[in-house]
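User: For a reading group we're discussing how well predicted structures match intuition. Take Glycosyltransferase family 1 protein. Before you show the prediction, I'll give you the sequence so everyone sees exactly what went in.
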Amino acid sequence: MTEPTRHQEHETETQEADLPNVCVVTHPLAAAGENATRSLLDILSAITSVALVTADLPADSEIRDRHELVELTQKGAGDSVVIAAFRFLLNQLRMCRVIAGRDEDVVLFFGATSYLLPIVVTRLLGKTVLVEPRGDVPLTLRLNWEQQLPDQVAAVLAGAVRALERAGFAVAHGVITYTPEMARQLDLHPESPSVYPTGARYVRTNEFCVQRPYADRDRVVGFLGRLDEEKGVRELAAVATQLPDDITFRFVGDGDLREWLEEDLAADIEAGHVELTGWVDHDKVPHALNDLELLILPSQPTEGLPTTILEALACGTPVYASPVSGVPDVVRDEETGFTIDSRESTALAAGIERILDRNDLAAISENGRTLIEREYSFDAACERYRGILRSVAGYSS
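Assistant: Thanks. Here is the predicted 3D structure of Glycosyltransferase family 1 protein, as structure tokens, for the group to look at:
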């Protein structure tokens, strides 16, 4: 089986008659969610028939042309808590109606793990229910709500969402997580027969590959992603100013903090110690990763498994990342990358210097690429989901 390309769908003959058809259900999709959903649909469509039920899908999404789509609404979650709660309930009612009219055997709630009403209705309809969290949604919501509401109110609301999510886990026939460590951090037991702890996404290993040998790379470290608060960009700006002159820190991406970075780091940018590339098209990301000796990602505990980590390792670029959610299963300390013990800028800068002084970085680079080829290639992902669907095929309500 070959990897999907951007302009090529898998032919129906690659699908397997013994596997149940799948209806994937998601909450309103922002850009990051759209990317993860597209990845999941690519995998499932290679092995069975799949359709997507979602809301607010980006107008230019490739999903529109590549997969059967039912769009509940083009409205997002809403800016206020009240509007978001109303649309949350309304979308659940719409989901129930749509799912009742579908004939797929399996309904997979991807990210929409707190949508308890349609989860229960789907179970009552006699369908097999799977839920797959993309990260810690209740924590994400609490951090967002704390920007609008008193902390105690935000905590209560997030607690209610967590209770809905836990109830959804209990009602479902199975819970899929990206990695075993992600399951543990969600208070799930990877060894449980109803938990499938290896549902991580895949990397396009033909695109994300080693283009520049590690030994030929310059002393450039950096960050790739959205330049905003939750990605730790302010902390990284402080790190960039503390590195020796022979190490360049490169910010690859764009976001709300772009202008702030340009002003705060003006002197370092002028001196060539810091670089801001701006937005990089997706087809240029492999090249950007191949130009780095080390990728730094002080990930938030809200994230399941950042795609950038998988793509960096596929390019032979070691990653220095926070050990949150599924990250430790991929960024294995001193084997494929390195663990951030403190997000304090001085500690991070010292850690970067210490890592770049190692004499085994080429071997660690090779280990990362090998891990991706072995466990996170497209074929490996298809085999994982093939096993999951075969396992749940015998479930009944």
